[in-house]
């Protein structure tokens, strides 16, 4: 298994995002866009990006959703995350063990990931319409925060 963009790597990023958004659950679309924002935060007027800005990196989004679903299953099986229905569909959240697991990760990459997750969840996402952001990313233009009625647009 290639560890880059594997369910394991994306699962760690998803768990960090879920821990940062706790107790607010996130759906698959939100997690995919937030993961992109964490990796490419410098392109979104945030902290320096975790990954380099390569041509065509917006194409990652389509592939990411499939691997993200696999990653969430890994987290659920490990007891670090859970899934539940709400009025809009399925949403994901951490279990009590999720944030504790994130806290024991000491790699410098994880520290940078946590900083960008805090920025993405609390500063970038509240003003971002997830559907519009996804469309803009797929069309090659990066979203900027804009007022919206709620985080689950």
UniProtKB/TrEMBL annotation:
Species the sequence originates in:
Actinomadura logoneensis
Pfam families this protein is in? MC2
Cited InterPro entries: ABC-3C_MC2 (IPR046904)
Note the superkingdom of the native organism: Bacteria
Q: What is this protein called?
A: Threonine transporter
């Amino acid at each position: 298994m290639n560890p880059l963009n594997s369910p394991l790597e994306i699962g760690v990023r998803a768990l960090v995002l879920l821990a940062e958004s706790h107790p607010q659950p996130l759906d698959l679309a939100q997690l995919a866009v937030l993961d992109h924002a964490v990796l490419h935060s410098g392109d979104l007027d945030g902290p320096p990006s975790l990954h380099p800005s390569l041509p065509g990196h917006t194409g990652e989004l389509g592939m990411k959703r499939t691997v993200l679903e696999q990653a969430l299953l890994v987290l659920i099986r490990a007891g670090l995350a859970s899934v539940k229905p709400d009025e809009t569909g399925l949403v994901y959240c951490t279990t009590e063990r999720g944030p504790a697991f994130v806290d024991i990760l000491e790699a410098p990459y994880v520290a940078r990931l946590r900083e960008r997750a805090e920025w993405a969840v609390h500063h970038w996402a509240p003003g971002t319409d997830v559907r519009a952001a996804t469309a803009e990313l797929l069309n090659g233009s990066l979203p900027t925060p804009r007022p919206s009625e709620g985080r689950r647009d």
